[in-house]
Automatic annotation (TrEMBL):
The chain crosses the membrane at residues 7-23, 29-48, 84-99, 106-122, 128-146, 167-184, 234-258, 264-287, 299-319. Belongs to the TMEM19 family. InterPro entries: DUF92_TMEM19. It is a multi-pass membrane protein. One of its GO terms (cellular component) is membrane. This is TIGR00297 family protein. It is found in: Membrane. Pfam families: DUF92. PANTHER family: TRANSMEMBRANE PROTEIN 19. Keywords: Membrane, Transmembrane, Transmembrane helix.
Amino acid sequence: MWSSIFLALRIIAAFLAASWIVYWQKLPISYNFIFFIAVIGAVTGSLFESIPSKIDRNIPVPLGAGMTMWIFEEFRYWVPPEKMLVALIFSLFLGAMAYRAKIADVSALLSAALLGVLIIVFSGPPWFLLLLTFFILGGGFARYKYAYKESIGIAQAKDGIRSYENVFSNSTAALVLAVAYGIFPEHSLPIIFAYMGTVATATGDTLASEIGTTAKGKPRMITTLKISEPGADGAVSLLGELAAIFGSAIIGVLGYALGISNDFLLSVLITTAGGFFGTNIDSLLGATLQKRGLLSNSGVNFAATFAGAGVSAVIYLLIS
């Protein structure tokens, strides 16, 4: 509640300060553009402030907000204030619901708000709703047999509540593709399937981890097929693989239901294939680079979601 109020005050303050400068300096900048930049800067600044850090916040907050505003100023991209307000309110509302449901912390709420604003502005609310499905399913299944997972030491920290790190490691590819959809409409179809593929990868991987670790039998290492321990990096099980297919298929079905794709069969098949492949790339990277300390869990998620997107786009291009 207070986070939303402070965010609104920051947006107003940023808009008034910038408007005053533009007015007195007689700069040729529209107030619509100023409002767009003010929202982007305020949300980014609030996000940086919510991230725990040993560094003085007086450095990363203005620097992060300033760099983000500069990027959009360079592109001179903006949308009407009414569309920006709808995007902000809608994404904040959904993020607040996730926070109240204890699926996300404050940093994740603000991360989702920033992602939501950009995704809605560049591609539309259905795209953000599809991404939000991943967070809802991930947060929900993190609590599946939580007591058992906690007893064997593989339960998610903080009862599975998501933070900014989880949001960005799993959603950066989705954000890039949503922005690309708005900028490159001539390539909309491969981008659509790539987007659904990256969300499917994040969803499939999360469900594979949260459900697969509860399997009765021992999992096997993806690189050697030797018996491993539940929760080990790179360990896979039949239950986990089925969960990955299930989660990926849900994203394909929802992508069609939300109107992102207008072909049900392609939506389900391509998205499921991309999500399943991306999930296993995640396991492969976990068994190799993560085990050697070359990648963190977030780095593995980041790479796998881009891989899932790429596979989905390639499959579409091959069969279209």
